[in-house]
Design goal:
alpha/beta, 2 domains, five-stranded mixed β-sheet, globular
Length: about 425
């Protein structure tokens, strides 16, 4: 009913509905995360209501970022809709590479989008991508293993507590690792995690003159603590583990704790998890310096400026990010499995408030401030990234050096020295210094 109303609201589109619409096919690039895979299973509902077919290009996170970035910067025109996030959206919107989403229907209720998500997906007040789901990060932990270790998880723990608990929960003979964390190279994979973690240790990427800060004690403390804890209590090969690898380990019962995207909560408590009945949640850790290590992100749907199917693409975005889509998933799979973190109304819904991780997710999102993410002042916006065009390339190289250090291929000191040189050289070439 909603989509028919939306069709009528767009008079130009209403005039072209029918045979022409039935022949439309949208090509959508998306990440291979669970909520996106779930969405693909429901697109028959969209096609049935609109006559618009959908072709999916589903890619691993690092590959997706590379493919869509190449396509939009070269005006390749492969995709009608791209799954992007808070890093790309404001930059690409400012460059004129994305279609503004400033004419969505009244029924869509754009004002219902959580302000943190709308703000991160806008440029100069104009929305350029609609959040499919929003997230922060938090601790997911095994309540049974924590109890067995004789410890109790605080609501807002320190990193020191986490390290001690991880060691206490580790049982190598039973193939149980006390903690699973991202170490995989990629600015949005291990790079995102260690940057958010570094904020809580007092580190930052740049000082106010855009000088790299990897030669500081704060960054050395971050990486040494991370590697020490993971060597003690992490899984073998953690240097190559990202979101999906750690999700699999946790669901198999091989992790005592996992600190990652809040969106993972529905999967660790779902049917694919062998430990679903023994999962608790806590805020991401800190070190007492005033910043927690949680990030802010949204996987969002955007329309590249080169598409020939702008109206149809907007129709799909309205469908996929609507209240009605949330209700569709809730009806079929329960409220715990709906896309979280995007709409205010979801957290006002009494049924969703019963979901065990709902409030912790919202608390984590609301406590993340991209405009004030570091202990010392920094010149950039962003928590797990710096919102400048050069960051993705620089951080990808830096994260490769870090992953090599995690794997024992070089020292932490060498990795940080290389990160300092890589970053300063790139910033000088780009004219920041």
């Amino acid at each position: 009913m909603y989509l028919r109303t939306a069709l009528c609201a767009a008079s130009a589109l209403a005039l072209t509905a029918g045979a022409a619409m039935a022949q439309s096919t949208l090509t959508i690039a998306t990440v291979n995360n669970g909520d996106m895979i779930r969405m693909q299973g429901y697109t028959g509902d969209f096609t049935e209501k609109t006559g618009i077919a959908v072709e999916w290009v589903t890619l691993e996170e690092n590959v997706l970022r590379s493919r869509v970035t190449t396509d939009i910067t070269t005006k390749g025109g492969q995709f009608d809709i791209m799954t992007i996030g808070m890093y790309e959206t404001p930059i690409w919107g400012a460059n004129g590479w994305l279609v503004p989403l400033d004419d969505l229907s009244a029924e869509y209720d754009v004002d219902d989008i959580l302000p943190a998500m709308a703000g991160g997906l806008s440029h100069e007040g104009t929305l350029y991508a609609a959040p499919f789901y929003g997230e922060s990060s938090m601790i997911m932990y095994r309540t049974d293993l924590m109890e067995k270790a004789g410890m109790e998880m605080p609501d807002a723990p320190t990193w020191q507590f986490v390290r001690e608990a991880a060691a206490a929960m580790t049982d190598r003979d039973a193939d149980i690792n006390g903690i699973c964390l991202r170490g995989k190279a990629g600015w949005g994979e291990g790079g995102a995690f260690i940057t958010a973690m570094s904020n809580s240790f007092g580190a930052r990427w740049f000082d106010m003159e855009w000088n790299a800060q990897f030669d500081t004690e704060a960054w050395a403390n971050t990486l040494n603590f991370y590697k020490g804890m993971m060597d003690e209590s992490g899984p073998a090969g953690y240097a190559t583990n990202g979101f999906n690898e750690n999700l699999s380990l946790f669901n198999q019962g091989k992790c005592g704790m996992w600190i990652d995207a809040t969106v993972a909560a529905s999967f660790v408590t779902g049917g694919d998890s062998t430990v679903a009945d023994s999962v608790g949640f806590a805020l991401a850790p800190d070190t007492g310096l005033g910043k927690r290590s949680n990030w802010l992100w949204a996987w969002a749907l955007a329309v590249p400026a080169g598409t020939q199917q702008e109206a149809e693409a907007k129709q799909f975005i309205e469908w996929a990010t609507s209240k009605e889509y949330i209700a569709l998933v809730a009806e079929n799979e329960g409220w715990a499995n709906v896309p979280p973190g995007a709409r205010t109304s979801l957290y006002e819904n009494p049924e969703y408030q019963k979901v065990p991780f709902a409030q912790k997710t919202l608390d984590s999102i609301l406590s993340a401030d991209p405009t004030d993410s570091t202990v010392e002042p920094s010149p950039y916006v962003g928590i797990q990234f710096a919102a400048i065009p050069e960051f993705a390339g620089i951080a990808t190289e830096v994260s490769q050096e870090f992953s090599a250090a995690y794997a024992g291929q070089q020292s932490i000191e060498d990795a940080l020295a290389k990160a300092q040189a890589i970053t300063n050289e790139a910033m000088e070439a780009a004219g920041y210094r």
